[in-house]
Amino acid sequence: MLEEKGYEMKIYDPHFHQDASVLETVYDFIVCSETAEHFSNPARDFSLLNRVLAPGGLLGVMTSVLYKQIDFQNWYYRLDPTHLSFYTPETMKWIGKRWDWLVCSPVENVYLFRKPII
Length: 118
What we know:
Largest sheet: 4 strands, mixed
Strand content: 15-25%
Oligomer: single chain
Number of helices: 2
Number of strands: 4
Structural class: alpha+beta
Radius of gyration: 14 Å
Helix content: 10-25%
Shape: globular
CATH topology: Rossmann fold
Distance between the termini: 31 Å
Number of domains: 1
CATH superfamily: Vaccinia Virus protein VP39
């Protein structure tokens, strides 16, 4: 959709689009849509995102969040074999603190992180 609006997009997904060359560039805005659940090592993967996110840049993460009212055992989202990592609202806040990013959630299942300008 962003390409339709004229934005240049590069794609990386650890399962479905493994073009690691896109990880050699620094970006002002990173969209992580339906991808964070594929992270096999979230600490490493968010660290990588921090490395390629420019100071002052935005990281948008959209994933199905494990809210308190969800019964994990019966949650459809966990049944997908490519879904390796799951996040709670508390986890998203922790991620923000860990990388010193400002964090907000404008709607359910969407988190925006802003990397500070050094």
